[in-house]
Amino acid sequence: MNYNKVNNYTGWLAFLIALITYTLTLEPSVSFWDCGEFIACIYRLQVAHQPGAPLFTMIGKVVTLLSLGDNTKVAYWANMTSAIASAATILFLFWTITALAKKILIKKAEDLTLANLIAIMGAGMVGALAYTYSDSFWFSAVESEVYAQSSLCTAIVFWAILKWDAHADEPNADKWIVFIAYVMGLSIGIHLLNLLVIPPIALIIYFRRSKNVTTLGSIGAFFLGCVILGAILWGIIQFSVKGAAFTDLFFVNTLGFGFGSGAITFFLLLFAAIVAGIYYSIRQKRFVLNMALICTAFIFFGYSSFVMIVIRAKAGTNLNNSDPRDAFSLNSYLNRDQYGETPLLYGNYYDAKVVDQTQGANIYRKGKTKYEVVGRKISGVYDHNTVFPRMFSQQPGDPEFYKGWSQLGDNQSPTFADNLGFFFTWQINQMYTRYFLWNFVGRANEMDGQLSSKGIDGSWISGWNFSKVLPASVTQSKSYNRLYFLPLILGLLGAIYHFRRSQQDAGVVGVLFFFTGLAIVLYLNQDPLQPRERDYAYTGSFYAFAIWIGLGVLFVAEQLSKKEKSKNAAILATVVCLSLVPVLMAGQEWDDHDRSTKLTAHDMAYNYLNSCAPNAILFTYADNDTYPIWYLQEVENVRPDVRIINLSLLGTDWYIRQMKTKMNQSEAAPITMPDEKFKMGVRDMIYYNDAKIPGMEVKNLFDYITSDKKTDMVQYQNGDMANYLPTKNLAIRVNADEVIKTGTLPADKKAQVDSLMTFVYPSDYVTKENLALLDIMAHNGWKRPIYFSLTVPTDNMLGMERYMYNEGFAYHLLPLKVDTALRPLEADNTQLMYNNVMSKFKWGNMKHANYLDHESLTVFYPLISTIFLNLTQNLIRENHPDLAKNVLEKYDEVMPATIPVTDIAIRKYYMVASAYSVNDTALANKLTGQLYSYLTDLVHYNYTLFAAGKTDLNNHDIQLGMSMLNGLAGLTRQYNQPALSNKFAGQVKDYEVKFGVSKK
Question: Which pTM does this prediction carry?
Answer without folding.
Answer: 0.95
